[in-house]
Structures are given as structure tokens and as C-alpha cells.
Amino acid sequence: MIPAIPTDKMLRSTSGQSLVELTLIVPFMLLLVYGVVEVGSVISTYLTLTHTTREGANLTSRGTVPNTALDAIIASAAPTIRNNNLGQWRVIYSHLIQNPALPCPPKPCTYQVESQIIRGSLSHGSQIGLVGQTVNIPGIQDVDPNQTFHAIEIYYDYGPDAITFIANSINEIFYERTIFTNVSTS
Question: Does residue 7 lie within any of the structural domains?
């Protein structure tokens, strides 16, 4: 015969308490881990896009052929930007020249988009402007006449890379832009 456990001891027993606490805390810990991974992925993607625009504008401003520069920056941005996810990104190179119809000064000088090269299939257009369009370059007012500029813009749809629900709370389309003027290579 098994001895009976007094009722007051049964009420104070802690033999299953740890298991119940573990069962309650594990989902929250997993959620926290997934959140940390997602935030890290967002930061990594943002830094990759920022670096890519800067390197592309730097290369083209130093005289690298724009198609060659675009090939190089797209290759260096892997695995974020790659050939098997063309619908997830768009890279736009724009060459800007002083608008020949509007002399400079007076400042700010106006510029014209002389040419553009577009890679990727994401359906976003240039925020700088279209070919032949007269534009003002934001933040660039005190430049000398006859300067030319090279701009790289990148759009990236982060949605397909999202791991958790956190991506739903951020803007899924990232946009980065860098503009360089011609650099003397002498």
C-alpha cells in the first residue's frame, strides 16, 4: 500500500513548477531571437545598399564606364542583389550635366539628366528625374558652372527576405541614392 501524501504537502509541492515556467517562457525567448535576427538582417541590407550606391557613384565619377561600374557594384552587393532576384531590386545610374538652356549663375544651377542606365526589374523610377528633364539636385547649391554629376539610386524590396512579422512594421521598399561630381584623376 502506498502511503498517502498529506494535502498540505501537495499544495506546497514544486516538482512541476520549473516545467510550467519553461513552457511559458520559451515562446517569448524564440520571438526575441527571431526579432534580433530580423533587425540584424534589416541593418545588413541597409548597409549593403548604402555602400553599393557610394561605390557606384565613386567609380563613375572617376571615369569608369557606367556599365562596368554597375556590373561591379551589383556583383559586390551579393547576396542582397543578385541575378536570380531581379524583380526585387532596381539600380539606376544617371549622368547629370548643367542645363545648357539655363546659364549658371544665378545659383543654384539647374541640371539636366543626360542619360540613364537601369538594371533590375523592380517597378520604381528615378527620383532624380527622367532623361532630358531639368532637375535641381537637392543639397547641391554652391557648385561651379559646367560641373557634371553621377548618381546611383537603388530600390530594394525587403519583403521576400523577411523572416518575422517585424518586416511588416517597416517600409519594405528601401531606397538609397548617392551623387558624386567628376573627380580629377591627375
Answer: no
